[in-house]
Amino acid sequence: MREPQRVRAAGLPERVTIYEVGPRDGLQNEAAVVPVEVKAEFVARLAAAGHRVIEATSFVHPKWVPQLADAAELLTSMERVPGVRYPVLVPNERGLDRALEHGVEEIAIFASATETFANRNLNRTLESQFEMFEPVVARALAHGLKVRAYVSMCFGDPWEGPTPVAQVVSVGRRLLDLGCFELSLGDTIGVGTPGHVAALVEALGGPSRLAVHFHDTYGQALANTLTALRAGVTVVDASTGGIGGCPYAESATGNLATEDLVWMLHGLGVETGLDLSSLVETSTWLAARLGRPSPSRVVQALGENPSRTTAENVEE
């Protein structure tokens, strides 16, 4: 399989950790329910491709995200490879209870940088969301779990417009102060641009403990990622095949595709530990089961997308 020509660029980290969100953030917006055995194989294929962080699922109430109703079954059935982290998203204390019951060692919480999205996604105000997170983080840390924090709508909100940088900084710092080891800055609707990314990283005091999570709605995800890397960020969220979106924000399109990110990083001489050929093969396999082509440009260039485009393949 073709590989990018490697030309090392100055000012970039030697290695980047790709935080794979395909099994959770990628699949959560699929209309047809994906069988749990397909999800388990997806996770196994990602580990085989070299991933060392794979967000497996979420203990959100099935009423809100039916696709993830099988979270407990998935965690019970999937193979866990030594040395691979399998974080799980939890929305509240009940979600944490279920995570602890299934031996989860790392969780993520999901906050909002805007008032409207906090209300729509969490049924909370911007301020009262912290009342929900505080006991979750405290209990998780007491049980020896690592806690990551996502912040959504960091660059813009479909109802409120541009998100003030100071507002994102306020939310982010409070989450870090709770004890979260990492803060993922989410461009939920994909409106961020490189200058905005650089300004936000600087306003948060630099890249320490930061990760970035870009959606490619306006084609800016790779440019924004490169800007974050030049600012010193070394953790990037991505979804194999570029699948995903946010069920609570209709304008949120797919995530940055892992393959597109790997092609760029390897071309820049940045190590990821991932095998591009295996990732493309996995995305092609998954696309056949989802019944539609992968939106990843690299998968389109290097793989064979399925010609069938109905959801019937999900049942295979």
UniProtKB/TrEMBL annotation:
Region (Disordered): 297-316
InterPro entries xref list: Aldolase_TIM (IPR013785), HMGL (IPR043594), PYR_CT (IPR000891)
A GO molecular function held by the record: lyase activity
Record bears the keyword Metal-binding: yes
UniProt keyword GTP-binding, yes or no: no
Stored Gene3D superfamilies: Aldolase class I (3.20.20.70)
Entry keyword set: Lyase, Metal-binding
CDD domains: DRE_TIM_HMGL (cd07938)
Residue ranges constituting the Pyruvate carboxyltransferase domain according to the UniProt record: 16-280
Domain of life per record: Bacteria
Biased composition (Polar residues): 306-316
Range of residues in the leader sequence: none
NCBIfam families: PRK05692.1
Similarity-based family: Belongs to the HMG-CoA lyase family.
Protein name in the entry: Hydroxymethylglutaryl-CoA lyase
Source species: Streptosporangium oxazolinicum
Lineage start: Bacteria, Bacillati, Actinomycetota, Actinomycetes, Streptosporangiales
